Amino acid sequence: MKATLTAIALGAILASASHAALAGPTATTTQIGTGNNAYIEQTLVDPTAPASATIIQIGNNNRAGDPVAHTPGIIQRNITAYSAATALISQLGNENAAAIVQDGTSFPVGATIQQKGDRNSATLAQTIVTWSPATIIQTGTDNVAALDQRGADTFFKGTQEGSGNSMLVRQYGASHGGARLTQSGAQNSIVLDQQQTLDQTIIEQVGTLNSVTATLQALGEDNKATILQVGTGNTVTATQSGSVTYDNIVQRGNNNLATVEQSLGRNDALIEQTGNANSAAIRQTGAGTGLGNTAYIRQVGDGFVASITQAGSDNHAGIYQH
Q1: Which of 18, 21, 249, 319 is the most buried (most CB within 10 A)?
Q2: Are residues 140 and 226 in the same domain?
Q3: Greatest Cα-to-Cα distance within the chain, rounded to the nearest angstrom
Q4: b/e per residue 3-35 (b: at least 16 CB within 10 A)
Q5: Domain count, the chain
Q6: Burial level of 322, CB count in 10 A (0-12/13-18/19+)?
Q7: 13/142 same-domain check
Q8: From residue 226, how far is each of 49, 188, 264 by CA, in Å?
Q9: Domain annotation covers residue 189
C-alpha cells in the first residue's frame, strides 16, 4: 500500500510540474529514497522560451540545497528579454531542506516550495523581478521558512500547518506586492519586514503562543496590514510609516497583547480583542495640516487596558470596553 501511495503522489507531482512548464529549457530531478541531494542551475541570456526547473524528493533526510549555507537547490539567473522562469521543489518526507534563488532578472519568474513532513526548512530569494509570485507550503512540525524578495510587483504566499513553525519574510522595493501568511498550530512566530512595498498584507494565525512582529515602510499609499489571531497567548507588534497607513488587528483568545505605531502621514488603526486580560496600545504621529490620525480600540472581556496617543491635527480616537 505504501508503494502504491508513493507512486500516486509522484505521478501527481510530475503531472503538475509538466502542466506548469512551457516549451523551453527544462530540467527535472526525481529522487525516491533517503539521504539524497539535488541541485539545478540555469543561466539564460535572452532565451526565446521560458525556463523551468523541478526537484522532487520522496523519502527521508533529503536536501535540495542548504538554506543555512545559502546554497540553493535551484538557481536561475539572467532571465531577461522575451523570457520567464519557474522553479518547483517538492519534498515528501522528514528532515528535508530546500532553497531557490532567482536573480538578475527583468522579466517574470515564479517559485514554489512544497514540504510535507517533519523538521523541514525552506529558503526562497528573488531579486530584480517583475510580477514574480513566490509560494512556500509546509505541512508538519518544526518547519522554518524564509523569503527575501527585492524588486517590483512581488507577492508571497506562505502557509504552515503544524507546531513550532517560524516564518521570516522580507520584501523590499516593490511598486505593488504584499503577502498572505497563514499558520495553524502552536508556538508559531512571524517576522515581517516590508520596505517600499505597496499593497495589502494579511496574516492569520490559528493556535496558541503565536506572535507577529511586522514592520511596513512605504512612501506612497495603500500600506495596509490585516492581522488575525485565534488562540491564547498571542502578541502583535506592528510598526508602519508612509503617506497613508492602515492597520487592522483582531485577536480572539486570552492573554493577547497588541501594539501599533504609525508615523509620517495619514494613519488609521483598529485593534479588536475578544477574550480575557488583553491589552492594546496605539501611537500615531501624523505630519502636516489635514493629515489626521484615526484610532479605535474595542475590547470585549475582563481585565482590559487600552491606550491611544496621537500627535498632529485632525485626530480621531475611540475606546470601547465591555
Answers
A1: 249
A2: no
A3: 71
A4: eeeeeeebeebeebbeeebeebbbbebbbbeee
A5: 2
A6: exposed
A7: yes
A8: 39, 17, 20
A9: no
Distance, CA of 187 to CA of 143 (rounded, Å)? 11
Structural contact between residues 67 and 123, judged by C-beta atoms closer than 8 angstroms: yes
The SS3 call for residue 141 is coil
Characterise 313 by phi-psi region: left (phi > 0), alpha (psi -120 to 50), beta (else). Answer: beta
What is 196-257 written as a DSSP string?
Answer: EE-EEEEEEEESSS-EEEEEEE-SSS-EEEEEEEESSS-EEEEEEEEEEEEEEEEEESSS-E
Residue listed under C-alpha cell 505605531:
261
pLDDT tens profile 249-304: 999 998 999 999 998 888 899 999 999 889 999 999 876 555 689 999 999 998 88
**Angstrom distance (rounded) from CA 230 to CA 72:** 35
* Residue 245 to residue 65: CA distance in whole angstroms: 38
Residue 192 covered by a domain: no
How do residues 96-150 score in pLDDT, each as one tens digit? Answer: 999 999 887 667 789 999 999 988 999 999 887 777 889 999 999 899 999 998 8
Q: Report whether 29 contacts 58 (CB < 8 A).
A: no
Residue given cell 509538466 in the structure block: 18
**Distance (Å, whole) CA 301 – CA 48:** 62
SS3 label, residue 27:
strand
In contact, 259 and 238? CB cutoff 8 Å: yes
Domain of residue 55: give its range.
1-178
Residues 6+ apart with CB under 8 A from 244: 220, 221, 222, 223, 265, 266, 267
pLDDT tens for 25-65 read 889 999 999 888 899 988 876 666 778 999 999 998 999 98
- Does some domain include residue 293? yes
Q: Residue 188: inside a domain, yes or no?
A: no
- Are 171 and 109 members of one domain? yes
Distance between CA atoms of 259 and 306, rounded to whole angstroms? 10
